[in-house]
């Protein structure tokens, strides 16, 4: 066992590799159990969150315990056929998502400040 963990420690993973996978193009009727059947083959799963709002249907987040299992699943399940749909498996990139949100929020705050203090760019 020590040998294996030693070997893993020396493997350099690409920076985008993440324990959280973002899955798109899922059949709307897929169940959490079916998700565990498909993704659980690649390693221990911490949680699966299926999108259930109108704009998140057909998507899910799969969180693995181990980043190597997540990479293995991503490598093998991209393009996997489920009920005639081909899965799109991506690494969740929190920084990108949050940076975008953050920018929007900062922009709105700036607008509010300008309004509050009557600062106008047009002058």
Q: Note the beta-strand portion.
A: 15-25%
What's the shape? Answer: extended
* Strand order within the widest beta sheet: 2-3-1-6
Please count the beta strands (DSSP E, at least 2 residues each). 6
The SSE order reads HEHEEHEEEH
Return the CATH class.
Alpha Beta
Q: Give the end-to-end Cα distance, rounded to a whole number of Å.
A: 70 Å
Number of domains: 1
Number of helices: 4
| Structural class by helix and strand composition | alpha+beta
GO cellular component, one term: nucleus
Protein name: RRM domain-containing protein
Keywords: Coiled coil, mRNA processing, mRNA splicing, Nucleus, RNA-binding
Subcellular location: Nucleus
Descriptive overview:
- A hairpin with a 2-residue loop joins strand 4 and strand 5.
- Strands 2-3-1-6 form a four-stranded antiparallel β-sheet, with helices on one face. Strands 4-5 form a two-stranded antiparallel ribbon.
- By secondary structure, it is an alpha+beta fold.
- The protein contains four helices and six strands, in the order H-E-H-E-E-H-E-E-E-H.
- 11% of the residues are buried.
- The protein has a single domain (20-117), classed as 2-Layer Sandwich (Alpha-Beta Plaits), CATH 3.30.70.330.
- The longest helix is centred in the last third of the chain and has 23 residues, at 94-116.
- It has helices spanning 2-9, 32-39, 67-77, 94-116, and strands spanning 20-24, 45-50, 60-64, 81-82, 85-86, 88-91.
- It is extended.
- InterPro entries: Nucleotide-bd_a/b_plait_sf (IPR012677), RBD_domain_sf (IPR035979), RRM_dom (IPR000504), RRT5_SRSF_SR (IPR050374), SF3B6_RRM (IPR034150).
- One of its GO terms (biological process) is mRNA processing.
- It is found in: Nucleus.
